[in-house]
Amino acid sequence: MELAEDNVEAVERYVQWLYSRDFKISPVGNTQCTNARYLELIRLYVLADKFNIPLLKNHIMGLLFETIKLPNGAFRDLISQDLDIRPPVSVLRLIYTNTPKGSPVRKFIAAVFVWHASVIRYEEEACWGKMSEIPDFTIDIAINLAKRVNNRVDPLKDIMSFMEPIPKTEIADGLTEPVKSPSACLQVLASV
Question: What is the pLDDT, as a whole number, of residue 47?
Answer without folding.
Answer: 94
